[in-house]
Amino acid sequence: MNVFVFDIETVPDTKTGRILYHLEKESDQEVAEIMLKKRQEKTGSTFLPHHLQRIIAISGALRRKDQFKIASLGGINASEQELIGSFFKCIEKYLPILVSWNGSGFDLPVLHYRALLHGISSPSYWNIGDDSDTSFRWNNYLSRYHYRHSDLMDILAGYQGRSNAPLTEIALMLGLPGKLNMEGAQVWDYFLQGKLEAIRDYCEIDVLNTYLIYLRFELIRGKLTPEVYQKECAYAKECISQEKKSHFEEFVKIWKN
Q1: What value does the mean pLDDT take over residues 1-21?
Q2: What pTM was estimated for this model as a whole?
Q3: Measuring CA to CA, how many Å separate 51 from each of 109, 112, 114, 250, 254?
């Protein structure tokens, strides 16, 4: 079975913000600041609701029978529509097991709203086996308790929100490097500075940590033997080393296993 681990990075959707708050002359940065301020006044947090998040990067790790590859989808100047289109094309092409960290709580709802905005179709993703194809009835991408999408944070917490853990803390607990030189709270500032490449690198590192945690998860549930688990980790390390990318090289240097 193909496995596709994914992560997204977002910034405030200032276009919709202009419509909602009747802003015409303000710059995108000013619109975003108004959106964040209004959100904080309402909830005490500047975390915007899912439908007001615009996707600027999607990274994925694809593990197939003869391949392991981590990359960010689309070119660095690709539009949001192109990024989301590439994501769902990957699902249609490979019908993979989707793997995420908090994908059910954040990444997928954002992708749903943005796909709705851009009119991006993905019949396989939305298939719940309610038509002639019943194979998705008991294992589809949308059910919280089906493993066709495995939200590792949700599963490991026993579907109890109070037990959720941050990705980087679990990664460090397992001897993985975790996040390297950037945090999610910095994405907006990096975006304003035009540092899209750094954002994409950051997203790829999150995907890599998630993939390696997924391998450990497959080990504890008996889907991988200890020997195969070690081989899969070694293969992932070999593949990212061959990429000759600085963020992967730094990851490998710190990786303890």
Answers
A1: 97
A2: 0.95
A3: 8, 9, 7, 35, 37
Distance of CA 195 to the CA centre of its chain: 19
pLDDT above 90: residue 66 = no
Residue with tokens 């007001």: 52
Count how many Cα atoms sit within 13 Å of the Cα of residue 5 in the half-sphere of its side chain. 23
Domain spans of the chain?
3-254
- CA geometry: angle 164, 165, 169, nearest 5 deg: 180
Task: Give the residues across from 10 on adjacent strands.
Answer: 55
Give tens-digit pLDDT for 106-127: 999 999 999 999 999 999 999 9
Q: What confidence score (pLDDT) does residue 256 get? A: 74
Span 3-254: which CATH code?
3.30.420.10
Structure-token pair, residue 113 = 């709203």
Mean pLDDT along residues 30-46: 96
